[in-house]
């Protein structure tokens, strides 16, 4: 079984920065992509950013130029550097893993979520 452990959420003021981390652990899995989604109250879960094991990235338009995603394949870890945070970034941030496990391609796993609150 694959597990995801997130860290780094918290309360900050607008304009400040936060760094989220997510570590994947378990056995018999190969990472295809890792990244972050978020869900604000009353909204659907939405993509923030994803990075493939080859280093290709995909960002939501709302975070381009402010957020940077990076991965460390050796540590099974993905990071999200969030700069110039805005109150609209307030949400629960969920780590997502797309992995091949026991020969099954691109299974999806989710973390428990970490709360990011940005005050104005």
Summarize the topology:
Blueprint: E1 3-7, E2 10-13, E3 18-25, E4 29-39, E5 46-52, E6 57-59, E7 67-72, E8 77-82, E9 91-101, E10 104-110, E11 114-119
Parallel strand pairs: 2-11
Antiparallel strand pairs: 1-3, 3-8, 4-5, 4-9, 5-6, 7-8, 9-10, 9-11
3D structure, described in words:
The radius of gyration is 14 Å and the shape is elongated. Strands 2, 4, 5, 6, 9, 10 and 11 form a 7-stranded mixed beta sheet that branches. A 4-stranded antiparallel beta sheet has the order 1-3-8-7, with no helix packed on it. The chain has no helices and 11 strands. It is mainly beta and 120 residues long. It has strands at 3-7, 10-13, 18-25, 29-39, 46-52, 57-59, 67-72, 77-82, 91-101, 104-110, 114-119.
State the gist of this model.
The chain has 120 residues and is mainly beta. The protein contains no helices and 11 strands.
Q: Which word captures the global form?
A: elongated
Mean pLDDT: 96
Biggest sheet character: 7 strands, mixed
Low-pLDDT windows of residues: none
Q: How many helices?
A: 0
Output the helix-strand order. Answer: EEEEEEEEEEE
Intertermini distance: 40 Å
**By helix and strand content, what is the structural category?**
mainly beta
Portion in helices = under 10%
- Strand percentage lies at over 45%
**Rg for CA atoms:** 14 Å
Number of strands: 11
């Amino acid at each position: 079984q694959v597990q995801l452990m997130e860290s780094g959420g918290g309360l900050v003021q607008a304009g400040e920065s936060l760094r989220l981390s997510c570590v994947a652990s378990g056995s018999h899995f190969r990472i295809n992509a890792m990244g972050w989604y978020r869900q604000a109250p009353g909204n659907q879960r939405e993509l923030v950013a994803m990075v493939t094991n080859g280093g290709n990235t995909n960002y939501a338009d709302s975070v381009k130029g402010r957020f940077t995603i990076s991965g460390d394949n050796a540590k099974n870890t993905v990071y999200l550097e969030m700069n110039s945070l805005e109150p609209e970034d307030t949400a629960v941030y969920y780590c997502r893993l797309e992995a091949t496990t026991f020969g099954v391609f691109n299974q999806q796993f989710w973390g428990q979520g970490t709360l990011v609150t940005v005050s104005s």
